[in-house]
Amino acid sequence: MIEGITVYDVLAVSTIIFFIGIFGFVTRKNLISLLISTELMLNAVALNFVIFNKFLYPGQIQGYVFSLFLIAVAAAEVALAIAIIISLYRMDNSVDADDMDTLKG
Amino acid sequence: MNNYLLMRDEFVLLGIILLLLVAEIMLIGKNRKAVVGIATGLFIVHTLVGFLPLAEGTMFGGSFRTNHLLHNMKSIMNVGVVILLLQTWTWAREEWSHKGRVTEFYFLIFSTLLGMYYMISSGDFLMFFLGLELASLPVAGLVAYDLMKMRSAEAGVKFILMAGVSSAVSLFGISMIYGISGSLYFSEIAQNFHLSGLGALGLLFFMSGLAFKISLVPFHFWTPDVYEGAPVPVTSYLSVISKAAAVFALAIVLFLIGREFVSVWKPAIYWMAVLTMTVGNLFALRQKNMKRFLAFSSVAQAGFILLGILSYDQMGMTSVVYFSAIYIFSNLATFGVVQVISLKTGREQMDDYNGLYRTNPKLALVMLLGLFSLAGIPPVAGFFGKFFLFMAAAAHGYYWLVIIGVINVTISLYYYLLVVRAMFLRKSDTPIESFQAEIPVKIGLALAVVGILFLGLYSPFYDFILNLTTNI
Predict the structure, then answer these.
(1) What are the backbone dihedrals phi and psi of residue A58, each rounded to the nearest 5 degrees, phi first?
(2) Model-level pTM greater than 0.90?
């Protein structure tokens, strides 16, 4: 453990990253940016698991294992999302969320 | 080795998925019509095998658990999928087999079902998370199945982004719960989990992630768009099987770890129930597209299920499972009719249903029964489902909630009867012409109708579920 850094400091980092992700998801209009925002949120969660494991429960590995699974699943999710976005781009020549108005909400 | 039999359902389904991959390779360059029959037949066998009794127990150090209740939840979902597969017979055969993209449909459907199995029989959060992702990622592929159509791909993007955010929020909550309790296992969490700010926040985050999946208000805004854009069979699957699985999972996890935190999550569920019932109903009133209409109706139905979770005892759990089973049959009946008509004529607006009874009386009758069951009109099953939910909530003193629920049932009666009026009383210059559906589709619709009538009139089914929930 690094001298002078408490669990609160690192938790603050991961929480800020998470809410940057939420903010980006709400404000951005580009589909790729939306995807990046989701990834930020997921990575904040992975960071959270590692932090809790490292600082609070150094004897076990459950948190580390969970974050590994998280990274793998997030990769699968991105691959699928990019595939759908590309097919959308081929039809519409745009990855802007405002152009998605075929279905009016 | 004997222990591995506990995962029988999962293994059989996995075997079917692998067999389908082999069949796909064998049929390269040929017409894939055979796949439809193979997949449906294999799944019917799987459902029948699923009815065989299964021992209770846990595997992998408690990561995977199964008992009679969980096993029967899976059977209920299996029956729903069988009906769905029969109803999609024509769609898969005529639309997709000549384009060479029919195996993927079954592959994705079975994969998500496998994910749901793991989700409801998970014993720790890691298994739960993997099940949840396996249950939601292939659905994005299914929603965007009609890739060459703009609206399908658009719905797919919306779904996958929403699924990503909801699982991230849910996982953020899980990480907090892990931070508090130092374990991912439900049994250990239940012991080490005490009332604290971080734990409460974690549980709320976790619940709101699941609320996205069940599309509870205020997390429902993706539902109508995705339901409208997706192909009708996928919409049917999303609103029935997917929703039932998420409800089961929410109920089970809350029963396992929520005991210490009743004061935190009960108010949240209470207000979500009020909002979901009311908002779902009010928005359903002004929908003209049948798929959007049924989307909001299914949002409202999910609100009623929360009453059972809220009462948090054996009676509540029983009513949740009972109502979900009935809901599966009723919604499959209505969606089945919408699907058949959409496939034959491409018409999906409510006005298109004017005079349906004159041209297609049988379809109109199936639709009528399904809508009556959703609305909760006495002779059919939906009434008993709602009745037991209200009973369970009233037994714990949630009288105001029950009153709000009854008012909402009355509102819902109005818009369900709008469709009935269109079908039976109105006349149209261009009615949907009379047509014959294929035999498997007819069987699928008939099974749904039998379910609606049978579950309503045959009371031992309720007692059967009541027996299952004795030791939750």
Answers:
(1) -65, -15
(2) yes
Residue A99 lies in a domain: no
- Read off the tokens for A71: 């990274």
Average pLDDT, chain B: 89
As a whole number of angstroms, the distance between CA A76 and CA B164 comes to: 11
Backbone angles phi, psi at A96, to 5 degrees: -95, 130
Q: What ipTM describes this predicted complex?
A: 0.93
Q: Quickly count: other Cβ atoms within 10 Å of residue B292's Cβ.
A: 22
Closest CA to A34 of A81, A102, A83: A81
| Cα–Cα dist B108/B105, whole Å | 5
Task: State how far the alpha carbon of B353 is from the alpha carbons of B90, B226, B360, B430, in Å.
Answer: 21, 22, 10, 10
Name the closest residue on chain B to residue A35, using Cα atoms.
B161
Q: Please report the beta strands in B12-90, taking only residues with DSSP state E, as ranges in sequence order.
A: 57-59, 64-66
pLDDT per residue as tens digits for the range B366-410: 999 999 999 988 878 888 889 999 999 999 889 999 999 999 999
Q: Do B154 and A18 touch (CB under 8 A)?
A: no
**Number of CB atoms found within 10 A of residue B418's CB:** 17
| CATH number, residue A68 | 1.10.287.3510
Which residue in the block uniquely carries the two structure tokens 């793998």?
A72
Rg value, chain B, Cα:
21
DSSP letter for each residue of B284-316? HHT--BHHHHHHHHHHHHHHHHHHHHHH-SHHH
- Whole-number Cα distances in Å, B331 to B88, B243, B271, B348, B466: 15, 11, 25, 16, 23
User: What burial class does residue B289 get, using C-beta atoms within 10 Å of its C-beta: 0-12 exposed, 13-18 middle, 19+ buried?
Assistant: middle
- Spell out which chain A residues touch chain B, with contact meaning CB-CB distance below 8 angstroms: 18, 21-22, 25, 31, 34-35, 38, 41-42, 44-45, 48-49, 52, 56-57, 60, 62-63, 65-66, 69-70, 73, 76-77, 80-81, 84-85, 87-88, 91-92, 100, 102-103, 105
Q: Is residue A42 part of a domain?
A: yes
Q: Could you count the other beta carbons within 10 Å of the beta carbon of residue B284? A: 24
- What is the least distance, in Å, from the CA of B126 to any CA of chain A? 6
Which residue among B126, B151, B164 sits closest to A69, beta carbon to beta carbon? B126
Q: What's the pLDDT tens digit per position in B47-56?
A: 999 998 888 8
The angle formed by the CA atoms of residues B301, B299 and B405, to the nearest 5 degrees, is 45
Contacts of A81 in chain B (CB under 8 A): 140, 157, 160-161, 164
In a domain, residue A100? The reply is no
Using a CB-CB cut-off of 8 Å, the residues of chain B touching A23 are none
For chain A, what is the domain count? 1
Tokens of B390: 């209200």
Domain ranges, residue B457: 2-471
Q: Residue B436 CB: number of other CB atoms within 10 A?
A: 10
| Residue A2 falls inside a structural domain | no
User: How many domains, in total, are found in chain B?
Assistant: 1
Which residue(s) pair with B64 in the sheet? B59, B122
Tokens of B272: 């979500």
Beta bridge partners of A30: A96
